[in-house]
From TrEMBL:
Native species: Eubacterium ventriosum
Location in the cell: Membrane
A UniProt-annotated Pfam family: LrgB
Keywords: Membrane, Transmembrane, Transmembrane helix
Coarse class of the protein's main subcellular location: membrane
Domain of life: Bacteria
Topology relative to the membrane: Multi-pass membrane protein
Protein known as: LrgB family protein
Length: 230
C-alpha cells in the first residue's frame, strides 16, 4: 500500500474524499453533530495510514492537491456575504465590535493558558492562530517561530469543536440573533464553523464568512503583539 501511494499522484485524494463521504453518510443517518464529516474523515485517514503502515509524508504528497483548493474555497465564502451586504451596512459597528472582541478573547485565553502551563515561546505562538483559517494560521505560526504542523492540528480541532458545539452553545445562552450566531461561529471556529453557520441560515453563513476575513486580519496584528509577551 505504501508503494502504491508513492507511485500514485491521486490515491491520497481518493482516501481523503472517501473518509469525508463516509462522514456525510454517518451524519445523514444518525443526524448527530458528533458525526462531523471532517472529524470522521480525519479518523478514517489515520486508521488507513496505521492499518496499511503508510508513511505520512508519502500520503501528504499524494493528497497535496486538496490543499491547493483551500485558498479559493475560502475566497468563495465572500459570495453569501455579498448577498447580505445590506445587513452588513446596517449592523457594521456591532459586527466589527463582536469580531474584534472575539479575537482579543482568543488571544488573551491563549496567553493565560500559556502562563498556567508554563509554555515556552515556540509552544505559545503555535497556539495563537488557533481560531483562524488554516491558510492564514500556518503563515502566522511560521513567521512567529511556532510549530506549523501542530498549529494546523489545533486549528482543525478548534473548527471541529465549534462545528459540533456551536449551535448547542447558542441555545444554552439563548443567542437567537442570526448575526450574532454567525459572528460567534466565524470568529471562533473559522471555515469549519462557517459550514455549520451556513446550515443554520443564510444570514448566519454570510456573517460567519465576513468574520473569517476580519478575524484573520486582526489575529495577524494581534498575534504579532501578543507574541512578545512570552
Amino acid at each position: 500500500m505504501n508503494q502504491m501511494i508513492i507511485n500514485s499522484t491521486t490515491i491520497g485524494v481518493v482516501i481523503s474524499v472517501m473518509g469525508y463521504e463516509l462522514g456525510l453518510l454517518l451524519k445523514r443517518k444518525f443526524k448527530s453533530a458528533i458525526f462531523n464529516p471532517l472529524l470522521i474523515s480525519i479518523i478514517f485517514v489515520i486508521c488507513c495510514l496505521l492499518l496499511f503502515r503508510v508513511d505520512y509524508n508519502n500520503y501528504n504528497k499524494s493528497a497535496q492537491y486538496l490543499s491547493y483548493l483551500l485558498t479559493p474555497a475560502t475566497v468563495c465564502l465572500a459570495i453569501p456575504l455579498y448577498q447580505q451586504i445590506k445587513l452588513l451596512k446596517e449592523n457594521m459597528v456591532a459586527i466589527f465590535a463582536g469580531i474584534i472582541s472575539g479575537v482579543l478573547t482568543s488571544l488573551v485565553c491563549i496567553f493565560v493558558f500559556a502562563l498556567i502551563f508554563n509554555f515556552g515561546h515556540e509552544e505559545y505562538v503555535t497556539l495563537l492562530p488557533k481560531s483562524i483559517t488554516t491558510a492564514i494560521g500556518m503563515g502566522i505560526s511560521e513567521e512567529l517561530g511556532g510549530y506549523v504542523t501542530i498549529t494546523v492540528a489545533v486549528i482543525i480541532i478548534t473548527g471541529v469543536l465549534g462545528n459540533i458545539c456551536g449551535e448547542a452553545v447558542c441555545k444554552i445562552f439563548k443567542i437567537t440573533n442570526p448575526v450574532a450566531k454567525g459572528i460567534a461561529l466565524g470568529t471562533s471556529s473559522h471555515a469549519i464553523g462557517t459550514a455549520k453557520a451556513m446550515e443554520m441560515g443564510e444570514i448566519e453563513g454570510a456573517m460567519s464568512s465576513l468574520s473569517i476575513v476580519i478575524a484573520g486580519i486582526c489575529t495577524m496584528v494581534g498575534a504579532s503583539v501578543f507574541a512578545n509577551f512570552i
